[in-house]
Structure formats: C-alpha cells, structure tokens
Design a protein that fits this description.
The complex is a heterotrimer. Chain A has helices at 6-42, 47-61, 65-77, 85-110, 114-122, 127-157, 169-180, 183-215. By secondary structure, chain A is mainly alpha-helical. The radius of gyration of chain B is 18 Å and the shape is globular. In chain B, helix 6 (171-186) links the parallel strand 7 (159-163) and strand 8. Chain B has helices spanning 42-49, 71-80, 96-106, 112-125, 141-153, 171-186, 198-204, 222-227, 232-239; strands at 2-13, 16-27, 31-36, 57-62, 65-67, 81-84, 159-163, 190-194, 207-212, 215-220. Chain B folds into two domains: 1-63 and 158-174 and 189-245, Rossmann fold, CATH 3.40.50.300; 92-157, no CATH class. Chain B has a six-stranded mixed sheet, sandwiched between helices. Chain C is 80% helix and 0% strand. Classes of the chains: A mainly alpha, B alpha/beta, C mainly alpha. Chains A and C meet through helix 2, helix 3, helix 6, helix 7 and helix 8 of A and helix 3, helix 4, helix 7, helix 9 and helix 12 of C.
Chain lengths: 218, 245, 245
C-alpha cells in the first residue's frame, strides 16, 4: 500500500505537522489564560458575572468549530486586511479553548467542598486569599486529567483549519492524496501521525485520573 | 462586658423560620453550651455569631460589634472569633504545621518564623507537637479535630465557637478532644459550644441553653437544667438519650 | 467601513432551515445507530471473549485519537480505492456512526463498570440468565448513570456534522457555504448559522431531558417536575450561587 507513497510524502506530512503542534500549543496557552479568567468569573460572587460567563460558555460550546473558524476568518476580514489563515485559526481555537477549559476548571473549583470555603472564611481570609491558598491548589490537581484530555481534543480540532486552507497535517494529506491519486495511504499516514501525537496524551490523562482516585482515600 | 449578646434574634431560610426571638448573653470567661434536637436551630445560631449566616431580625453583638458587618469588618471580627467545625475541615493539601500557620501569616501578616513559633506552641497545647509534618489524611479523627482547634487558637481569638466537634468522632476519640477544650475553658477562654456531650457540659459549662423549634426553651446552670427540667420538651429530649454521658 | 447587511441571509432562511433539518435528520440517525454500536461494543468489552475485547479496544483508541475530519476523508475518498463507493451522505453517516460508536462504547463501558457486582450476583441468585442480567440489571442503571456524558457526546456529534460540508453534503454548514458563494455576505451568514447551531443545541438538550424523564423512573419519582425544569433551576442557582438565603 505504501509503495509509491514513500518517504518524501511522509516528510512533507511531518513538516506540516509542525503547524498542528504549534497551533495546538498556542491555542492551549492563550485559551488557558483566558479560560482561567472565565473559570474565576464563572464562580464569582456577582450573579451578573456568572450569568454572562455561563452564556459565553454555552454559546461557544454550542457552535461547531468550523463555524467559529469561519466567523473568525470573515470577522477579521471585515477590518479590511488580508487574513492569514493562521491568525483566524489561532483566534477561533483560542476562543474554543477558553470556553472548554473555563468550564473544566469551573467544575474543578465547584467540586471543592463548601466546608473548605467556610473554614478559610472563618479564619478571616479574603476571597482572593481563599482562592490562592486553599481552593485553587486543590482544584488544580482535580482539573489535570480533563485538562490533558482537552488537549487531545484540541489537537484533533486543528484538522478543521484545513478547510480554510491552513497547510497543517490534514491539508497536507489532502494535497498529497490529490497529487498521488492515492488517498488511502495518504490519509492513513495522516491518521497515524495524529495517533502518535494523541495516544500518549490520552494515556497520560488516564493515568492521572487513576492516580487521583488512589490518592483520595477519605 | 458581654462577649456575645443576642436580643430577639430571628433567622429565616426562605419560607422556613429557623430562629425566632433568641436572646442570651455570654459574659467574658464563661462557657455556654447549646443543646437540642437536630433542626432546633442550634448550629444556625452558632454560625450567626461568626457571620457565616446572617440574621434577619433582632440584635446580635459580638465583642461589641453589631452584626451583620460589612466584609472588611467581618474579616477583622473573625480574627477574634475562632470556629471549629464538626468535620474538622483541615486543608488537605497542607501539613499540620502549614494548616496552623497559614492564617496567621496571610491574615495577620506574621512572618514565617513568628508563625512557626506560634504553631509549635498551639500544637503542643493540644498535644500534637510531634505531628507537625503529618498530612491530615494520616491523622485520626480526634487528632485532626485537635489540629483544627490549634488552627483557630493560633489566631489568639477572644471567643471560640465549637459546632458539634465530637459528633463525627468514634467514642474513644472524643475524650482527647474534650480534654483539650476543657483545658481551654479552665484557662479562661470564652466559649460557645453546640454539643451532645452531657458529661462535658456538666463539668465545664457555666450556662446551658436548650433550643427547640428555633427558640430558647430553657436555660440555666447545667446541674439544675439536667436534673430538673421544667418543660416536657426538655424532659423528652433528655429521655431520648441523644446526649452522651 | 464594512456595511453589515443581514437581508440576504434572512431572505434565504428557508434554505437554511432545510439545511438544519438535514443536520437534524443525519444526526438523529447517526445517534441512534452510533448508540447501538456503542452499547454492543461496551458489552463485548466487558463480557466478551479476549480477542473481541482487544479488537474493540483497538477500534475505540483508533477513533478517539484521530480527528473526525480525517476519518470522514478516509471513508469518502479512500474507501473507493478498495471498492467501497459511498455517496457523500452515506459516507457522512458511516463516519459519524463509527466515530460516535467508539465514544459511546467507552462511556457506556464506564457505566457498566459502575454497576455494583452485588447487583449482578443478586440477579444470578434469582436464577437470571447472563443475557437477562445484562438487559435488566446492568444496562438500565448503567445508561442512566452515564446519560449526561452520553447526551453531551450526542450533541458534539451533531456539531461535528458541520464537517460533512467538506464533502459537499447540503446540511446547515453546506447551505451556508452555498449562500456565501452566492451573496458574499460571509460574516453575516456564518454568524446567523452559528446562532442556529446554538438554538439546535438548546433544543436537543431539552429533548434529551424529556427523553430521560420518560425513560428513567427514578427521575420521575425522585425529581418530579424539577427535572423538566432543570434548565430553570440551573439558572436560579446561577443567580444565588448555590448559597442558602
């Protein structure tokens, strides 16, 4: 099957995979920062803050990534500049990540028992002190498995950016499939590379999950 | 001066009235014990004293301050009022020593060395000087509760509140906790306790309040209250055996 | 300055609704079939012979660690080279069923694992056959337990159906792309389509709530009308932050 396919094509795919990795890392980092703010706003005392953030999360999570991508792409184009696909992709995936990570971390914060809030409150701590010293350190551990799991989702979602012609792994696969008339080895190779990127992370997330439950014997 | 003064305090949760017309006085250096069935409002009353719950009516003065207080003043009050919970609520990600040191450091601004000194002192006071580096999950329930007491003591409060602090413990472990609380009382700490420990109340309390349906049904010194209940409700409560000897 | 003009979009709402209907139709079919595949695989994974278990594991891991778009391309573009030629819609549905099946398998498996062994032993003690135990004792509580995860995944699959536009299926996104090429009002079109997807998501969530209510007796007995109005409850809780009073 891989006969005519050869090392040349594989090299092209691996080079294109750079963009997959870069885009994932960028969206994860920026989306992570934004997501942290989202999580804090979502659990803030102010009902306005909570409702608006919940609406934001609901909207982003209720929209396909492809549509987010198009809106970002054509939205940026409105200010008249020629939009590099990488920019639109970064914006769309950052927004995507901020909502999902925000929701994950919100869940982790919510899972910390009310009694921890009360004990620290009774010692005279401010809300920021409670978050910084008592709540967030505990929430962090709990949030690790789903956060790593989300990273896997993010890497897979970068494939959608091929549809705005960003030449990452999937797009390169399409180009090679069209050039060689051999879609099967092309796309299977693409799938294998994604697998190599994602599978170790999935495994890692699972091991974090089991270690979390072993450590929590009450 | 009264450390706690309540006048006709009332509290609702939505439609449910949990406290009505509660009045009592806790003078300095005295120990007040509150007893009653679950749902009688005793824990709620305690939680109102340090502001975890807000009263809806009446007057509540703690250390001269009238509750409810704005956030900054409330935090300042909480430095002077220590609270120990039924479920200890230790911070699981910190060692015993760190648990005791954290509040003096970040709330009172103490330096690390100073906070550590205080921590060692109070941990010795509760008999856990050798458990400084243990994690909460490595300690027994009784030990965890004593750490929780030490954590509150490290703030050098003027008033200590205890919310059923032995109810979650196995009987063998309650003794060590009650001994610590008794010692605190003898040293002159002003305290309000919600408890089922009748023997403890008889030995240590200056006044016992029996709460029923959100009101103070009977009050008085422990000897008279326990031996000669005036109302049928208290009689029933004592007979029901909810209190431990 | 760019002039926003939503009129062409609103003129074409009928076309968009047709696209939305196709999205719903394809998604519903994929959900039903994918759920069935998932249940079968989960059962094979927990109760089947070793080689089948391994096969299911490989299938699940392969699907969950590769992008749906690539899976779609393989089904539509690559399979013809080995003789399997599908129309765009057929390929879309096959890819969606294969994808959802893997996720559902994993989710349902977790639900099955969570059913306490004692329940199964009780069924066996009553003389039930293995199949009867699975059908009556294991699967119903398993599915009820993982219902939220499962329905979340179903909704994700509906959102993923937008990628079928890449192989020229005329579902909602496909229609949007068509309108884009006709009117060049790109931003307005995709913005409105985004709103439509959010609406579809909300409708599906409500539908799944209703289905759950109809299917799970426990929901009816324990939650009553509360569960039908769960979104309203959530909204109320949002405003009060879950704190009492």
């Amino acid at each position: 099957m891989f006969g005519q396919f050869g090392w040349h094509a594989l090299t092209l795919l691996l080079i294109a995979a750079r963009w997959t990795v870069l885009l994932s890392a960028l969206a994860f980092a920026l989306g992570g920062l934004a997501g942290f703010a989202v999580a804090l706003l979502r659990t803030a005392p102010s009902p306005v803050s909570r409702t608006l953030t919940a609406a934001y999360i609901e909207i982003v999570q209720g929209t396909p990534v492809l549509i987010l991508l198009f809106v970002a792409y054509f939205g940026v184009a409105l200010i008249g500049i020629d939009v590099p696909p990488l920019l639109a992709a970064s914006i769309a995936l950052t927004i995507f990540s901020s909502a999902y990570l925000g929701e994950i971390w919100r869940g982790a914060i919510d899972s910390i028992a009310q009694s921890q809030w009360e004990a620290s409150e009774s010692l005279g701590m401010t809300r920021w002190q409670q978050l910084r010293h008592i709540i967030l350190p505990q929430a962090f551990r709990i949030s690790l498995p789903p956060t790593v799991g989300f990273l896997v989702q993010l890497i897979k979602n970068t494939s959608v950016t091929s549809l705005i012609s960003l030449v990452e792994l999937t797009r390169e696969g399409q180009l090679i499939a069209n050039a060689t008339f051999r879609p099967l080895p092309a796309f299977v190779a693409v799938a294998l590379i994604y697998f190599v990127l994602c599978f170790p992370l999935s495994r890692f997330s699972q091991s974090l999950e089991s270690r979390l439950h072993v450590g929590r014997q009450s | 001066m009264s450390v706690v003064r309540a006048e006709s305090v009332s509290k609702r949760f939505g439609e449910l009235t949990v406290l009505s017309d509660v009045s009592f006085d806790v003078p300095k250096g005295r120990v007040t014990v509150i007893i009653g069935r679950s749902g009688s409002g005793k824990s709620t009353m305690l939680r109102c004293i340090n502001g975890l719950e807000e009263i809806n009516g009446g007057n509540l003065e703690v250390l001269g301050h009238s509750l409810p207080l704005p956030p900054k003043a409330l935090r300042a009050l909480r430095v002077e009022v220590g609270m120990v919970f039924q479920s200890y609520n230790l911070f699981p990600h910190m060692t015993t020593e760190e648990n005791v040191m954290i509040a003096p450091r970040i709330v009172k601004g103490a330096g690390r060395a100073e906070a550590r000194q205080v921590a060692h002192r109070v941990l010795d006071q509760v008999g856990l000087g050798d458990k400084r580096d243990a994690m909460p999950e490595q300690l027994s329930g009784g030990q965890q509760q004593r750490v929780a007491i030490a954590r509150s003591l490290a703030m050098q409060p003027q008033l200590m509140l205890f919310d059923e602090v032995t109810s979650a413990l196995d009987p063998e472990l309650t003794g060590e906790v009650l001994r610590v609380i008794g010692a605190l009382a003898r040293e002159g700490m002003t305290m309000v306790l919600v408890t089922h420990e009748m023997g403890f109340a008889k030995n240590v309390a200056t006044e016992v309040l029996f709460m029923h349906n959100g009101r103070i049904w009977e009050s008085g010194p422990p000897d008279t209250l326990f031996s000669s209940p005036r109302t049928p409700e208290l009689q029933q409560f004592l007979n029901a055996g909810e209190l431990r000897e | 300055m760019y002039q926003f003009n939503f009129t062409p979009v609103f003129h074409n709402l009928p076309k968009l609704f047709t696209g939305a209907l196709l999205t719903l139709a394809i998604s519903s079919l994929a959900i039903l079939l994918g759920f069935a595949v998932g249940v079968v695989c989960a059962l094979l994974r927990t109760n089947g012979p070793k080689p089948l278990r391994a096969l299911v594991s490989i299938y699940v891991e392969a699907v969950r660690n590769t992008p749906f778009l690539v899976q779609l391309f393989i089904v539509y573009f690559a399979l013809p080279t080995v003789g399997i030629r599908l129309t765009a819609v057929e390929a879309g549905i096959v890819a969606m069923v294969a994808n959802l099946g893997a996720y559902a398998a994993e989710i349902v498996r977790a639900g099955i694992d969570a059913v306490h062994r004692l329940q199964i032993e009780a069924g066996a003690a009553l003389g039930m056959s293995r199949l009867q135990i699975l059908r009556h004792v294991v699967l119903p509580p398993a599915i009820e337990a993982v219902y939220p995860s499962l329905t979340s995944q179903f909704i994700l699959m509906m959102l993923a159906s937008s990628l079928l536009s890449a192989i020229s299926v005329g579902e909602l996104t496909g229609v949007a792309q068509l309108l884009d090429s006709l009117t060049f009002r790109s931003f307005e079109i995709y913005f409105v389509v985004g709103v439509l997807y959010v609406l579809i998501t909300l409708v599906m969530k409500a539908a799944f709530q209703a289905i759950g209510f109809a299917s799970f007796k426990r929901w009816r007995r324990l939650g009553g009308a509360n569960l039908v109005f769960a979104p309203l409850q959530r909204f109320r809780r949002l405003l009060t932050n879950g704190r009492s009073a």
